[in-house]
Amino acid sequence: MILIAATILYLVGFLAILQGVGSLLQGAAFLRFVRRELAATPPAYAPPASVLLPCKGLDPRLTQTLERVTRQDYPSAYEVLCAVESPTDAAVPAIQAVAARSPVPVKCVVASVSHECSQKIVNLLAALETLDPASQVLAFLDSDAVPHSHWLASIVAPLSDERVGVVTGYRWYDPGGGWVCLTRCVWNAMTLTLLGDHHYNFVWGGSVGIRRETFEKLGIATRWRRVLSEDYEVTRTVRAAGLEIRFAPRCVIPNHDLATWSQFWTFARRQLIITRVCHRTVWTMGAIMNIVFNMAFWGLLWLAVTAIACGARGLGYAAIAGLAVIYGLAVAKSVVRQAAVALLVEPSHRSRATYWGDVLGPPLIGVLNFALMVASGVSSRFWWRGVRYEMRAIDSVRVIDRT
Prior knowledge:
By secondary structure, the chain is α/β, with parallel strands linked by helices. It has helices at residues 2-39, 62-69, 92-101, 119-128, 151-156, 179-192, 212-217, 220-224, 230-240, 261-278, 280-309, 313-344, 352-360, 362-377, and strands at 49-54, 78-84, 106-110, 137-141, 164-173, 207-211, 244-255, 381-384, 387-393, 396-402.
């Protein structure tokens, strides 16, 4: 019986090794890309722009976000459009206070309550109706992201290439705040290296730049009216138009929000539900890769202990060897990823705990991901900023409840 189990686990282990080699090569390509991009001089392209900032509630660092976005090192004129659900939103006083001392125009746009799309999209659509006619570029920023002073210039510059349909950054969660924030940081970092210099990039809605002409020509605002995820819809639309999604390493933005385990679970599960509904192939591949890794790592660990205990030392030592290779590849990928993170993220937004958590944590993160995959596969209902949604299809969203 143990021989049959060993044969199956060796085969799964072989698949996990191939998977690990591919992942390591991908990580190395990401590191090379980051080094190349950061060493290059960005194009001198900076037309008049509008920054759209959807808000809901008072984020802990909203004032800092507003202060940073209104004081960008940007050579041309730009405006900041903050959009809220209602005039009683907790973010309104902070927006008004910063607007009063801002060196650039700041508008507080009041939207309405969402019914068939996300509240974030309703807010964005309201902001789009108030754009300055002179704006040639639209930049989107999440209210819980704190940009550096060159963020706007960095998200706009790649648009000088007409082959580029949209430019995206990504989020980096500050690991400060205990084990849950560290876990969230490591879990999120694993997605970062999926971006790079290739045709499979995706848009992250918290840090985006797009030419206004492209946005209007592709009819993105109309497409948004019945969807929940604005970034997945932009990804799908830009790809369908044959345009490039360009990742800008300089536009990786830190998020400092603290979280509880419940909040992290809700966030991570929501991300995976949205992925399953909007891009089932990606979700399925992720689930398969997760199952292969978990089955190989924990299965070979079980086999090593059991085989040696039963006197089948050859089988046990072979399992240990396979386990070492699988874990070694995961550690190597984490080391490469952290080398890239060191270039992208300021030291104050990372820590030694992040490094070692990423390097030593793949087996535990694998178990966490398995639980999240299961949870995201059995239901399409979730909470997001005080609104409970049911996401039945890409263009079929229902608001169930509000708090």
